[in-house]
Amino acid sequence: MIRFTAIVATIAISGIVVAGPPRLTVQGVATLEVPADQFSLTIGAVASAATVTEARTEVDTTMAKLVKLVTDLGLVRDSEWHTGRYDVNPQWKPRPPRGQRSEAWTPEIIGYSVRSSLSITSQKLVLAGTLVAEGAKAGATEIGSLKFSLSDPRSSRAKAIRTATTHAVADATTLADAAGVGLVQVLQISLDGAEMTPPRPIEYKAMAGTELGRAAFDMESAPDITAGTVKVTASVTAEWEIAPTHGAQIDPSGSPD
């Protein structure tokens, strides 16, 4: 369920000090709290060895387990997961401290580091905790932040804009009625801003690939992870031409007689 929060509108009558008809300017602001319906997670492995073959073998073995894990959980390749990276980098012999270097020292490759990962984005929220726990058990040495978001952010953004506009219209109508004036026509309307604030990511980097991390996830059931809500805000400013009602007159101060 989407929760709406109306923020007090800023209202000002500003047309009297400028040329043209009297004007009324209203700012409408709305905040929506929309339940997150999508998660993103990166899980992978990194290994170092004297040769590329040794490092690749270790990483590929772990990655095969992770691919089997996501496949067995029903995640679809390409649409819900894909290979995020596969890097092979040389490891160089450390440079001697200044003052201890000799002319005979030369750069030398002493090993290789291989890193690979899977990038997962899915609306199957119930699998988030399982992927973290079972990924660690499968030997993942890198588990990225678990992030929650909206699968259709533009829909929620549009709803926030409509809500903010509705607030502006309602506040302008109330203000005009209280002031004894009528709203003639909209002169201009602008979107001041529309933003989304997702829930704070859940960090697992420090636990991945350690005995402490594997022990933390050594449980029969996966951790209970709640997605939280995405805060969607929008602000609009609308300006109306106004005219007195019931024969009232507007004096130079902007107040109806």
Q: Can you put this structure into words, describing what you see?
A:
- The structure is a single chain.
- By secondary structure, this protein is α+β, with helices and mostly antiparallel strands.
- The chain folds into 2 domains: 3-35 and 153-196 and 232-244, Translation Initiation Factor IF3 (2-Layer Sandwich); 38-95 and 105-148, Alpha-Beta Plaits (2-Layer Sandwich).
- 25% of the residues lie in helices and 39% in strands.
- The chain has helices spanning 52-72, 128-137, 153-179, 211-216, and strands spanning 3-12, 23-35, 38-49, 81-92, 109-122, 142-143, 147-149, 181-197, 229-244.
- Strands 3, 4, 5, 6 and 7 form a 5-stranded antiparallel β-sheet that branches. Strands 1-2-9-8 form a 4-stranded antiparallel β-sheet.
- The protein is elongated, with a radius of gyration of 30 Å.
- It starts with a strand and ends in a 13-residue tail after the last strand.
What can be said about this structure in brief?
With 257 residues, this protein is of the alpha+beta class. 25% of the residues lie in helices and 39% in strands.
